[in-house]
Amino acid sequence: MQNHGDRTLTVRKITIIGLLVAVGAIAAPFSIPVGVSKVYPVQHTINVLTAVLFGPGPAVMAALLTSTIRNIMGTGTPLAYPGSVFGALIAGIAYRYIKKDVIAAAGEILGTGILGALVAFPLAKWLLGFSGIALALIIPFFLSSLTGAIIGVLILRVLKRTNALGRHLLL
C-alpha cells in the first residue's frame, strides 16, 4: 500500500515528466529541416534528462509523447519516433547500470545517432519516398543527438551543483 509520501513523489515525477514533454512540444517549431527529417536537439536533451532522472521506461514514454505531439502539430515527421525512442531507451539503460550522466549521453548518441537513424531509414523510404542512402540520415541524427546530449549533461550538472535535484525535485 502506498503512503501519502509515495503518492506525492509519484505525482511530482509525473508532473516533471509532463513539463519536459511540454517543453519538447513548445520548442518543436525550432526544429531544423534536413532532407526528409527535422533535427531537434531539444528532444535529445529531454531524453538525457528523463533517462537520468527517471530511468528508461519514463524516458521512452516522454519520447513517444513528445514525438506524437510534434507530429500532431506538424513540427515533426514519422522519423521522430525511431529518432527519439532508441536514444531514450539506451540512455536510460546505460545510466541505470553505470550511473554516469556522460554514459547516458553516449547512450543517447548511440541510440539515436546510429540505431535510430538505421531504423528510420526504411521508414523514410516507405513513408516519405526518401531515395538517399542511410548515411544521409545518420549524419543529421548523430549531430542532433550529440548537441542535445551535451546540453542535457550541462543541465544535469547545473542541477546537481545547485542541489536542485535534492531540494526541489525530491528524487
Explain what you see:
By secondary structure, the protein is mainly alpha-helical. It has one domain: Orthogonal Bundle (Arp2/3 complex 21 kDa subunit ARPC3), CATH 1.10.1760.20. The chain has 7 helices and 2 strands, in the order H-E-E-H-H-H-H-H-H. It has helices at 4-26, 41-54, 56-73, 82-98, 101-128, 135-161, 164-169; strands spanning 32-34, 37-39. It has a two-stranded antiparallel ribbon with strand order 1-2. The longest helix has 28 residues, at 101-128.
Taking the sheet with the most strands, its summary is: 2 strands, antiparallel
Annotation, overall tally of beta strands: 2
Q: What portion of residues belong to β-strands?
A: under 5%
Radius of gyration: 16 Å
Largest sheet, spatial ordering of strands: 1-2
CATH level 1 class label: Mainly Alpha
Quick check: average pLDDT?
Answer: 90
Order of helices and strands: HEEHHHHHH
Unreliably modeled segments: none
Give the N-terminus to C-terminus distance in angstroms. 20 Å
Q: Which structural category do the helix and sheet elements fall into? A: mainly alpha
Predict the CATH topology: Arp2/3 complex 21 kDa subunit ARPC3
- What is the 3D form? globular
Amount of helix = over 70%
Number of helices, counting only DSSP H or I runs of 4 residues or more: 7
CATH architecture: Orthogonal Bundle
| Number of structurally distinct domains | 1
